[in-house]
Amino acid sequence: MKDKLIIFDTTLRDGEQSPGASMTRDEKVRIARALERMKVDVIEAGFPAASQGDFEAVQAVADAIKDSTVCGLARALDKDIDRAGEALKGARSSRIHTFIATSPIHMQKKLNMTPDQVIEYAVRAVKRARQYTDNVEFSPEDAGRSEEDFLCRILEAVIDAGARTLNIPDTVGYSMPQQFGATIANLIQRIPNSDKAIFSVHCHNDLGLAVANSLSAVMNGARQVECTINGLGERAGNASLEEVVMAVRTRQDFFNCDTGLDAREIVTCSKLVSSITGFPVQPNKAIVGANAFAHESGIHQDGVLKNRETYEIMRAEDVGWTTNRMVLGKHSGRNAFKTRMAELGVDFAGEAELNDAFFRFKQLADKKHEIFDEDLQALISEQGFEAEDEHIKLVALKVCSETGEVPNATVTIRVGGKEMTGCAQGGGAVDASLKAIESLVKTGATLALYSVNNITNGTDAQGEVTVRLENAGRIVNGSGADTDIVIASAKAYINAVNKLQSPDQRQHPQKGDV
Ligand SMILES: CC(=O)SCCNC(=O)CCNC(=O)[C@H](O)C(C)(C)COP(=O)(O)OP(=O)(O)OC[C@H]1O[C@@H](n2cnc3c(N)ncnc32)[C@H](O)[C@@H]1OP(=O)(O)O
Ligand SMILES: CC(C)C(=O)C(=O)O
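Above are the sequence and the acetyl coenzyme *A SMILES. Below is the predicted complex in structure-token form.
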């Protein structure tokens, strides 16, 4: 039987200490509810002595939450502890978390106290907190830079005073995983009454080691981890909840414990915290980043299509994504391309048709970061336009457009087997290009409509252009798509001309026309 690993979420307290991440009372309640749905064991809702607003926020969370324990932070001062006790009055299950620094630099330079005075404050604070709740947590702040002997002394004293959770913070993210794990093991082994308390850790990410240090502590006997959604927190942040939870779950072979969390709520919670705080989640962030379960390169996509476990150690669905994601881009291969096309209802008649479409896809992918379904549909319909009548084809287009100059375009087309080049000036790059084409094909048609739609978002999106040509009572529409709307316009014009000059009406350019 494995031990329970308690998850103590401090997004609403330490997470809120990220500059710019402060939350209103109602926002804290919304996040607390999401944490409760995820079955987080303890929610640290704030620091009630910090302000009237934070007092009320902790109070509101305490009143709203039924299943998780709600905790408030307090310095080792009567006034802070009383504020926390009062704010937590309505909680079904409450905890007071009190702390005082134990490292030489903090004691001397910040608190201006002797080690004995610090122990005195700590013991007094724990005893006072016990007047409000049996559930008292004590943290020797900056434990990562504190002397182990002194930690043993103070922790033994606060256990006797009634602390039931001993949280060892690496306040400035200075520890190394092996060393931090050894400290936890030593404390548990050296403190005579350590069996009366649960050991916890609270790691900061200044060296990017918060999760590694937390996991090392768990391997050495810690049974509570303090963490935050998306790794939010003071300076470089705290250990990220989603990474800790999924590391323990995925590598059960390393741990004698597991959390009781419903990990399928992770992504929802991450998105909520990100939208409330305005802190975006980086795309390559483990578990909750947009790319965490996305595959772009052909070899990976091929492997995943054959068996997901080739490149996935967790299932996207298990942390709350709808599914994993195949991103089509310049590194993708035929297998992924064909699979996505089949999902879009496009079946290729044979290898040649697939290869042709795949070639166009690669050309587009060289110009565009990500290929969306709409791009693929445009790619296929464009193939359809051309397949319909490819008598005239765009070979090259060069446009010169600068302030103070009349735009001009040089276009080369292939008509039948023959290449022709023409130039024209126009009111803009599109106008000049269409006039250059017209100077070659000489339809004499009127442009009855010209419209541009962007198929996807972003400045690298494909534009789809539609033109309507009218000639001698005949009306045809032409379409073209490209990441460059001038090229899309030229393609659309040529597509319309091809339709206009259907075989019976086609006028082949005459020698000397060019
Ligand atoms: C590592 C951590 O994350 S700890 C939590 C950090 N979070 C916060 O600080 C957020 C909330 N803080 C605040 O709103 C304010 O700092 C308050 C309300 C707590 C205190 O404000 P002020 O009374 O104006 O004090 P100020 O912030 O300037 O200085 C902190 C004081 O607390 C003392 N102190 C710091 N930690 C502790 C402690 N754990 N126990 C007792 N006293 C402490 C300092 O020595 C200093 O005392 P001094 O003024 O006698 O020198
Ligand atoms: C109050 C304690 C746990 C803290 O936030 C820290 O040391 O980083």
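Residues 504-514 have pLDDT under 50 and may be disordered.
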